[in-house]
């Protein structure tokens, strides 16, 4: 499969969008740029989430128990192995493969149970705190620890979601943390697998995901420490110095944590994609309309940027945004904008059935008049990977000779190229604002009009 940023559902041709499912749809060749935040489980109205948070924190605090019992090597082994959870595919890796922490970092984490009296006696309530004490620990590592300790639940959750949405699964081998015995077990389970690497894939509820954990170092530094604690010594805000200060002044951390708990109503999960507000869409449209054609003052680049942002929101949730400025395999040609086609709408299903388009390519042209060369450029992208349907977005309605050119292309090769202009963008933004119809209906209308011009 040569799709751009292929996802699990794209590979198996499963017709659901990100909006329609409870989990974050995983990419097959890179991570989702979000993280599991344990605080979302702590503040959740769901008793299940609360109990999972309790088991998560208990599992982490058990490491301190092992340390007190003289089983330091066992605690280090668990920490290292639980510090990476490739199966969930969360983070910023371009290969869905991360690196676990080293034993030295694990020892520094365990030292917190020995050197901070409050943690020694009571353990953590929010183990995300370790970001404030130990170097090389940040949101991504907290997420991996949480996913590893909750993996047993996530496996059951994944199996349920696969059954509900008909996602194919295979028998695979996986390491799971046993909460009852507090050990890592090897299990054979039935999960979806990466079709290329055959490594298991675990799904994660969207409601648990954020771009940054609610308790994090940068927030502590800028929203609390500098404003409430700093004594004027700039060296004290250097990373290592501040971590040392935090370990020696745990009461300061406790106060910060209490503030984060009191403001928990502001802690919400981050969506994988958030449409822009109506006011923003109108501003972007106005900027697009007022841009000169051509390349003067980077007008062509500005046009591409604003149209990308606008269309990604106007077509959501019927079309999930895939990528912008994507190069072809040869690296020579650049496709401007690509959407996943999940056939979530009758028109989109027709496009898939008639033209084989799992993804839809859009070319953006800030020119006075569309030419045959622009048509031929898009036509070169329309192959077995992307199907035979594409869209050009430009400033003015195409001249009759170009319309005839697209009709001839359909007649000779059964390839469909539609052309949207500034007036179409205006109509789409109006529909986006009034919500009387879907903005994608403008594209559907263009398709109906195009087909009427084609010979039967």
Notable characteristics:
single chain; 456 residues; alpha/beta; Restriction Endonuclease; 2 domains; five-stranded mixed β-sheet; two-stranded antiparallel sheet; 46% helix; elongated
Set out the fold topology.
Blueprint: H1 8-11, E1 35-36, H2 38-43, H3 47-68, H4 72-81, H5 103-115, H6 117-122, H7 139-149, H8 151-165, E2 170-178, E3 183-191, E4 209-210, H9 217-228, H10 239-248, H11 250-262, H12 278-290, H13 299-314, E5 320-327, E6 334-340, H14 346-355, E7 359-365, H15 372-381, E8 389-394, H16 400-413, E9 416-420, H17 422-434, H18 440-453
Parallel strand pairs: 7-8, 8-9
Antiparallel strand pairs: 1-4, 2-3, 5-6, 6-7
Helix pairs in contact: 3-4, 4-5, 12-13, 12-17
Quickly describe the structure:
The chain is an alpha/beta fold. It has 18 helices and nine strands. α4 packs across α5.
Description of the structure:
The protein has 456 residues and is an alpha/beta fold. The protein folds into 2 domains: 8-266, no CATH class; 278-453, Restriction Endonuclease. It has helices at residues 8-11, 38-43, 47-68, 72-81, 103-115, 117-122, 139-149, 151-165, 217-228, 239-248, 250-262, 278-290, 299-314, 346-355, 372-381, 400-413, 422-434, 440-453, and strands spanning 35-36, 170-178, 183-191, 209-210, 320-327, 334-340, 359-365, 389-394, 416-420. The strands form 3 sheets. It has a 5-stranded mixed sheet, sandwiched between helices. α12 runs antiparallel to α13 (299-314). The protein starts with 7 loop residues before the first helix and ends with a helix. 37% of the residues are buried.
């Amino acid at each position: 499969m040569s799709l751009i940023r292929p996802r699990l559902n794209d590979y198996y041709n499963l017709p659901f969008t990100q909006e329609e499912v409870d989990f974050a749809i995983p990419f097959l060749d890179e991570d989702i740029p979000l993280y599991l935040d344990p605080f979302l489980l702590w503040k959740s109205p769901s008793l299940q989430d609360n109990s999972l948070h309790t088991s998560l924190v208990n599992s982490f605090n058990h490491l301190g128990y092992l340390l007190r019992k003289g089983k330091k090597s066992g605690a280090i082994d668990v920490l290292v192995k639980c510090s990476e959870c490739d199966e969930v595919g969360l983070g910023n890796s371009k290969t869905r493969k991360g690196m676990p922490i080293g034993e030295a970092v694990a020892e520094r984490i365990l030292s917190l149970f020995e050197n901070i009296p409050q943690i020694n006696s009571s353990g953590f309530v929010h183990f995300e705190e370790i970001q404030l004490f130990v170097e090389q620990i940040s949101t991504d590592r907290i997420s991996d620890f949480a996913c590893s300790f909750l993996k047993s639940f996530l496996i059951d959750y994944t199996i349920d979601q696969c059954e509900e949405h008909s996602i194919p699964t295979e028998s695979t081998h996986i390491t799971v943390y046993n909460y009852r015995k507090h050990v890592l077990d090897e299990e054979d389970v039935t999960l979806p697998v990466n079709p290329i690497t055959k490594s298991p894939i675990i799904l994660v509820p969207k409601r648990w995901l954020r771009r940054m954990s609610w308790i994090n170092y940068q927030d502590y530094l800028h929203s609390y420490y500098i404003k409430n604690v700093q004594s004027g010594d700039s060296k004290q805000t250097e990373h290592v110095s501040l971590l040392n200060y935090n370990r020696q002044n745990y009461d300061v951390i406790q106060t910060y944590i209490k503030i984060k708990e009191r403001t928990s109503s502001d802690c919400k999960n981050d969506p994988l994609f958030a449409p822009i507000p109506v006011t923003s869409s109108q501003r972007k449209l106005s900027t697009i309309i007022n841009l000169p054609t051509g390349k003067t003052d980077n007008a062509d680049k500005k046009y591409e940027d604003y149209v990308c942002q606008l269309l990604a929101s106007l077509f959501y949730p019927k079309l999930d945004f895939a990528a912008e400025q994507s190069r072809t395999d040869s690296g020579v040609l650049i496709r401007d904008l690509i959407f996943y086609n999940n056939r979530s709408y009758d028109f989109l299903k027709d496009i898939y059935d008639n033209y084989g388009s799992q993804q839809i390519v859009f070319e953006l042209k800030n020119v006075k008049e569309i030419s045959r060369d622009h048509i031929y450029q898009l036509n070169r992208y329309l192959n077995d990977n992307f199907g035979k349907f594409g869209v050009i977005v430009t400033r003015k309605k195409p001249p009759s000779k170009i319309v005839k050119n697209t009709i001839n292309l359909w007649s000779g090769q059964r390839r469909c190229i539609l052309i949207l202009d500034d007036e179409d963008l205006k109509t789409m933004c109006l529909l986006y604002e009034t919500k009387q119809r879907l903005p994608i209906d403008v594209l559907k209308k263009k398709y109906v009009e195009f087909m009427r011009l084609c010979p039967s």
